[in-house]
Amino acid sequence: MSYGLFVITSKDSSDNGCIANTCVQVGAAPTQLAISCQMGNLTREIIEKTGVFNVSVLTDDVPYETITHFGFQSGRDVDKFADSSATRRSHNGLLYLTDHTKAMFSCKVISKTDLGSHMMFVGEVTESKVLGEGTPCTYAHYHKAIKPKN
Length: 150
Fold this sequence. Notes:
The protein is built from three helices and nine strands.
């Protein structure tokens, strides 16, 4: 199977975000996206509470540091946006990444499904923008070309 790499963002009392490999268009009229977040993930908790999220579609030139920053530490322990100037706020008030990002989507949750290890959210797209000319990063490309070889 092919997957992409995305940063999913949310906001409660502070901004938060995580790396995800699952984001797919599931409806066209209106446009709807499905994402999944691990159950223990702070981003998942905030999305459940607030009902909104953003998706930043990462490009294949994304630095490994971006992936580790959003994927290998918890927003419970660190403010992931404290030093980030490469962000903008969408109409829903949430941040999205601007560097190494092909496109962004803002979504309002219309349904959720408990999948055991993950929560799947289906969101109606309320805003979208093409941000760059790069190629969207796949999970396979991450393993082949971005992730350091041990």
